[in-house]
Amino acid sequence: MSYPIGSPGVPWSEAERAAWRARQHKQRSYADDVIVPIDRLRGRFEVIEHGRLEVDVDGVFPLLAVRTRGWDERLPVLLVTGGVHGYETSGVHGALRFLDEHAASYEGRANVLVVPCVSPWAYERIQRWNAYAIDPNRSFRARAEDCPAQESMALVRLVAATPGRVVMHIDLHETTDSDESEFRPALAARDGKAFEPGTIPDGFYLVDDEEGPSPDFQRAILEAVAKVTHIAPADPDGTIIGSPIVAPGVIRYACRALGLCAGLTDAPHTTTTEVYPDSPRATPEQCIAAQVAAVRAGIDFVLA
């Protein structure tokens, strides 16, 4: 498969990155879809603007986090992130729904911190990368100043400034058909590599951290999600997206080494959710509900 930008085998220069960006157009509104719902939560939660994403002529996007009131440093911190990849819609709306319907019930038992949309420019353009053809979910570093993506840098700074110990982090994602038709070919072209076709799992799965796995935590989440939508089976070779399954519906990545959002903290319980919105067996509503179920199950497991 060829990609319409660049030359085969040659990594992109700034010219190719600019050509790629010129193809990206606003398709939905971060202000309407994310800021307005967060504004409705201000009477019940503390809303924090932890940065402003400045993207040349495309404007400035306030980066917003929401946390439970009565923050107590003695209580565990539970972190939920969505929209690290802006095109993965159910992560954003799942985080917002969790806030609206469930987060307040944990006040007094835990400090809940939710960042519904890490990458607003990409959310508006239904894109995986940010405006500079950088993947935020490969850009998390121990020090904020070392992060190559503004979006990742802002989140690292927020977490570093948050009082208390993070004991759980759930990062909400999707795996879509467009991964295979657009985003993986674009990645190969950008890096001057040959595109190697892969598969798209039909169903929900989790990515545990191989550097600090928490298998019981993953199992508790999958049991809850299975009541909402189906769990992805392994491919015939026993893998999911090329990674060996370590339990039904679970694979592992070296999250910190890869610069993934799930490696952002030292939390003992971390996972990355992956739903499949293009499945004929799932609806957009089921995908959002699955994300909410995953967050609730993860929190209930930790607090138990």
Explain the overall architecture.
The protein has 304 residues and is of the alpha/beta class. The chain has a single domain (14-303), classed as Aminopeptidase. The chain has eight helices and ten strands. It has an eight-stranded mixed sheet with strand order 1-2-4-3-5-10-6-9, sandwiched between helices. Strands 7-8 form a two-stranded antiparallel sheet. Strand 1 and strand 2 form a beta hairpin. The longest helix has 20 residues, at 284-303. The protein is globular, with a radius of gyration of 18 Å. The N and C termini lie far apart (49 Å). The mean pLDDT is 97.
General form: globular
| Continuous helix count | 8
How would you characterize the largest beta sheet?
Answer: 8 strands, mixed
Distance from N terminus to C terminus (CA atoms, Å) equals 49 Å
Q: The CATH topology, please?
A: Aminopeptidase
Main attributes?
304 residues; alpha/beta; Aminopeptidase; 8-stranded mixed beta sheet; two-stranded antiparallel ribbon; globular
Give a quick rundown of the structure.
This protein is an alpha/beta fold and 304 residues long. It has helices spanning 14-22, 30-40, 89-101, 120-125, 150-161, 177-190, 215-225, 284-303, and strands spanning 46-55, 59-67, 77-82, 111-115, 166-174, 205-209, 239-240, 243-244, 250-253, 269-275.
